[in-house]
Known about the structure:
The structure is a single chain. The two termini are 44 Å apart. The strands form three sheets. This protein has a seven-stranded antiparallel beta sheet with strand order 2-6-7-1-5-4-3. It has a five-stranded mixed beta sheet with strand order 10-9-8-11-12. It has three domains: 2-172, no CATH class; 184-315, no CATH class; 341-404, no CATH class. It is of the alpha+beta class and 414 residues long. The protein has helices at 13-44, 55-67, 79-96, 208-225, 231-265, 276-282, 287-292, 294-307, 353-363, 392-404; strands spanning 2-10, 114-118, 128-129, 133-136, 140-144, 155-161, 164-172, 184-189, 195-197, 202-203, 268-272, 311-315, 341-343, 350-352. Strand 8 (184-189) and strand 9 (195-197) form a beta hairpin. It contains ten helices and 14 strands. Helices cover 40% and strands 16% of the residues. Zinc ion is lined by residues 325, 327-328, 331, 344, 346-347, 349.
Amino acid sequence: MLLSFKTQLKPNNKQITRFRQHCGVARHAYNFGNAVILDALERRKTDDSVKIPSAIDLHKKLVAEVKTENPWYYESSKASPQQALTEVRKAWDRCFKKVSAQPRFKQKGKSHDSFYLEQGTKANPGISNDGKKIKLPKIGWVRLAEPLPLAAVHNCVISRTADSWFIAIKCEIEKPNVEVNRPSVGVDIGIKELAVTSDGRVFSNPKAYRRMSKRLTALQRAVSRKQKGSLNRSKAVIAIARIHARVANIRKDAIHKLTTHLAKNHSVVKIEDLHIKAFLKNHKLAGAIADCGMYEFKRQLEYKTEKFDSQLVLVHRFFPSSQICSNCGNHRHKMPLKNRIYVCSDCGHTEDRDLNAAKNIERWFEGIFIPERSSSDAVSLTVKVCGADKPLKCQLETAMKQEANSKPIQLTLF
Length: 414
Ligand SMILES: [Zn+2]
């Protein structure tokens, strides 16, 4: 299967200059394409016959009008501007489909810079890799921070985060061996935790941001004290970007570990197919996943389940996984976010809210029986007073004391 690898590059100063030039060309071409499309849209308002140019039309126009006047285009690989035009056209397609907002012009130094390089012909390969270094067209041999698999590279993307450079390449790899008889698993994307699985495992949210935020505040203050345009100010800005990149990396790492664990050790992985907007509305504190995006979580699971020969099942987004009793499956009641513990009034089953939801997700199949919502919600315990940070047993005991005067309930502790 084709897998993409991303690793850090260790370029020398000359190579960094070349990288920046390539990014500049890609950015220029992107902005040119964006302007041409905006112009076509404007003219279309009065003339219906005006067509939105395709990526190929944009490239023809770029070669005819821009490249002749800007000879520095020829100093970088021709694949970079071409890919930038394809990207701006795709961004507009997404905008026309109302999937994303209107593409904006790229500003120098603001957004994450990147450019694309392509493999040349067999006789004259543009990209080759000896394990420790990678050869890039018009740039030369660049050192790699860690070895890459020695496989045929089709194309690559070089990008910058803070002041580090990265390369992403697509390679053909063989699927790893996996154990037979792996169980299936349901995953609840937690509010307090990163995720809770139906076998009772809890994946905590990385506390990276809180730890780093103190240093971040200090650095931001330092930036505001420095003179605009000074070297010291730009140094402080880079220091902030580095911390942001580090926080993002810690979060990414937590999600990668979670998705690898899920795909590698289970034959079937079931997750809720949540719409990203609905997800953020209901899961305000969902931490790392809200940060990286549900899309990224799903994307990783998609390719990792393929890699480890397991199956990803998306549970219907209207399945009330937190409301149904995972023990008897016949009871359902409202579960506001403050309720951390699920108590079934039919069978007396008592469980942590997220674990109960994960178990329901694991049980799910197309056409599963969904009970009507019970009107007697009075039995559900509210534990806002005792705090959700205490152990479950302690929460239950406090909640039971509160409930003791009103109604006797059966509780089973585990
Ligand atoms: Zn029950």
